[in-house]
Design a protein that fits this description.
Shape: globular
Largest sheet: 5 strands, mixed
Helix content: 25-40%
Strand order of the largest sheet: 1-2-4-3-5
Order of helices and strands: HEHEHEEEH
Strand content: 15-25%
Amino acid sequence: MILIKDFKLSEFDSKTAPGTGRLMRVGTLIKLQAAREVYGAPITIAHAFRTKADARRIKAKHPGAVENSAHESGYALDLYPTAGIKGYGDWIKLLNAFWDAGFRRFGIMANTLHVDDDPGRPFPALWKYAQTAPDVWAEVRKWYEAKVTGQN
Protein backbone atom coordinates (compact mmCIF):
# COMPACT_ATOMS: atom_id res chain seq x y z
CA MET A 1 0.00 0.00 0.00
CA ILE A 2 1.72 3.18 -1.18
CA LEU A 3 -0.02 5.26 1.51
CA ILE A 4 2.28 3.69 4.10
CA LYS A 5 5.59 3.46 2.26
CA ASP A 6 7.62 3.23 5.49
CA PHE A 7 5.54 0.40 6.97
CA LYS A 8 4.37 -3.08 6.01
CA LEU A 9 0.67 -3.81 6.36
CA SER A 10 1.53 -6.82 8.53
CA GLU A 11 2.97 -4.44 11.17
CA PHE A 12 -0.62 -3.47 11.96
CA ASP A 13 -1.85 -7.05 12.48
CA SER A 14 -3.20 -8.21 15.81
CA LYS A 15 -0.55 -10.37 17.47
CA THR A 16 -3.04 -13.25 17.42
CA ALA A 17 -4.73 -12.75 14.05
CA PRO A 18 -2.50 -12.37 10.99
CA GLY A 19 -4.03 -10.29 8.21
CA THR A 20 -6.05 -8.01 10.48
CA GLY A 21 -3.83 -5.03 9.67
CA ARG A 22 -6.01 -4.56 6.59
CA LEU A 23 -8.77 -3.50 9.01
CA MET A 24 -6.90 -0.36 10.02
CA ARG A 25 -8.53 2.93 8.96
CA VAL A 26 -6.98 4.42 5.85
CA GLY A 27 -7.06 7.93 7.34
CA THR A 28 -5.18 6.74 10.42
CA LEU A 29 -2.50 5.15 8.24
CA ILE A 30 -2.18 8.29 6.11
CA LYS A 31 -1.62 10.35 9.27
CA LEU A 32 0.90 7.78 10.53
CA GLN A 33 2.89 8.04 7.31
CA ALA A 34 2.78 11.84 7.49
CA ALA A 35 4.03 11.72 11.10
CA ARG A 36 6.84 9.37 10.09
CA GLU A 37 7.92 11.80 7.38
CA VAL A 38 7.87 14.75 9.81
CA TYR A 39 9.69 12.69 12.45
CA GLY A 40 12.38 11.73 9.96
CA ALA A 41 13.41 8.46 11.59
CA PRO A 42 12.05 4.90 11.83
CA ILE A 43 9.07 4.21 14.09
CA THR A 44 8.19 0.78 15.45
CA ILE A 45 4.53 -0.26 15.80
CA ALA A 46 4.05 -2.07 19.11
CA HIS A 47 0.29 -2.62 18.73
CA ALA A 48 -2.26 -1.60 16.17
CA PHE A 49 -5.42 -3.55 15.34
CA ARG A 50 -6.87 -5.61 18.19
CA THR A 51 -9.49 -8.31 17.99
CA LYS A 52 -12.23 -8.70 20.60
CA ALA A 53 -10.24 -11.64 22.01
CA ASP A 54 -7.16 -9.40 22.30
CA ALA A 55 -9.26 -6.82 24.12
CA ARG A 56 -10.57 -9.40 26.60
CA ARG A 57 -7.04 -10.64 27.29
CA ILE A 58 -5.76 -7.09 27.84
CA LYS A 59 -8.72 -6.24 30.07
CA ALA A 60 -8.04 -9.34 32.20
CA LYS A 61 -4.38 -8.38 32.56
CA HIS A 62 -5.06 -4.64 33.03
CA PRO A 63 -8.49 -4.20 34.67
CA GLY A 64 -8.43 -0.43 34.04
CA ALA A 65 -8.16 -0.89 30.27
CA VAL A 66 -10.81 0.96 28.31
CA GLU A 67 -13.80 -0.90 26.90
CA ASN A 68 -14.18 -0.86 23.11
CA SER A 69 -10.70 0.51 22.53
CA ALA A 70 -9.97 2.55 19.41
CA HIS A 71 -7.58 -0.30 18.54
CA GLU A 72 -10.61 -2.54 17.98
CA SER A 73 -11.96 -0.26 15.28
CA GLY A 74 -8.62 0.37 13.56
CA TYR A 75 -8.09 3.95 14.70
CA ALA A 76 -5.28 3.44 17.23
CA LEU A 77 -1.56 2.74 17.30
CA ASP A 78 0.92 2.15 20.09
CA LEU A 79 4.38 3.02 18.85
CA TYR A 80 7.86 4.21 19.69
CA PRO A 81 10.91 5.51 17.87
CA THR A 82 12.91 2.52 16.70
CA ALA A 83 15.98 4.13 18.29
CA GLY A 84 14.09 4.41 21.59
CA ILE A 85 13.16 7.33 23.83
CA LYS A 86 16.14 8.60 25.76
CA GLY A 87 14.80 11.83 27.20
CA TYR A 88 12.25 14.62 27.10
CA GLY A 89 13.51 15.88 23.76
CA ASP A 90 12.70 12.51 22.17
CA TRP A 91 9.16 12.62 23.58
CA ILE A 92 8.57 16.16 22.34
CA LYS A 93 9.97 15.46 18.87
CA LEU A 94 7.71 12.39 18.54
CA LEU A 95 4.64 14.20 19.89
CA ASN A 96 5.21 17.18 17.60
CA ALA A 97 5.40 14.89 14.56
CA PHE A 98 2.08 13.24 15.43
CA TRP A 99 0.44 16.57 16.29
CA ASP A 100 1.61 18.02 12.97
CA ALA A 101 0.17 14.97 11.17
CA GLY A 102 -3.26 15.63 12.70
CA PHE A 103 -3.46 13.32 15.71
CA ARG A 104 -5.07 14.87 18.80
CA ARG A 105 -5.38 11.91 21.18
CA PHE A 106 -2.24 10.82 23.04
CA GLY A 107 -1.58 8.26 25.76
CA ILE A 108 1.83 8.34 27.41
CA MET A 109 3.29 5.02 28.54
CA ALA A 110 6.80 4.28 29.90
CA ASN A 111 8.52 4.26 26.49
CA THR A 112 5.59 3.99 24.11
CA LEU A 113 3.09 6.47 22.71
CA HIS A 114 -0.57 5.69 22.03
CA VAL A 115 -2.12 7.79 19.28
CA ASP A 116 -5.57 7.55 17.81
CA ASP A 117 -7.92 9.56 15.65
CA ASP A 118 -11.19 7.88 16.55
CA PRO A 119 -13.87 10.43 15.61
CA GLY A 120 -16.23 9.00 18.22
CA ARG A 121 -13.99 9.97 21.13
CA PRO A 122 -13.32 13.38 22.68
CA PHE A 123 -10.32 15.31 21.44
CA PRO A 124 -7.90 16.80 22.08
CA ALA A 125 -7.05 14.35 24.84
CA LEU A 126 -3.97 13.37 26.82
CA TRP A 127 -3.70 10.64 29.44
CA LYS A 128 -1.12 8.62 31.28
CA TYR A 129 -0.82 4.97 32.25
CA ALA A 130 0.30 3.40 35.51
CA GLN A 131 3.87 3.03 34.23
CA THR A 132 4.21 6.66 33.04
CA ALA A 133 7.17 8.33 34.75
CA PRO A 134 6.07 11.41 36.74
CA ASP A 135 8.82 13.63 35.31
CA VAL A 136 7.95 12.63 31.74
CA TRP A 137 4.27 13.24 32.47
CA ALA A 138 5.03 16.74 33.78
CA GLU A 139 6.97 17.67 30.63
CA VAL A 140 4.39 16.16 28.27
CA ARG A 141 1.58 17.99 30.08
CA LYS A 142 3.40 21.30 29.51
CA TRP A 143 3.78 20.45 25.82
CA TYR A 144 0.10 19.51 25.55
CA GLU A 145 -1.17 22.63 27.32
CA ALA A 146 0.89 24.80 24.99
CA LYS A 147 -0.50 22.97 21.95
CA VAL A 148 -4.16 23.15 22.92
CA THR A 149 -3.92 26.81 23.93
CA GLY A 150 -2.05 27.73 20.75
CA GLN A 151 1.06 28.88 22.61
CA ASN A 152 3.33 26.46 20.76
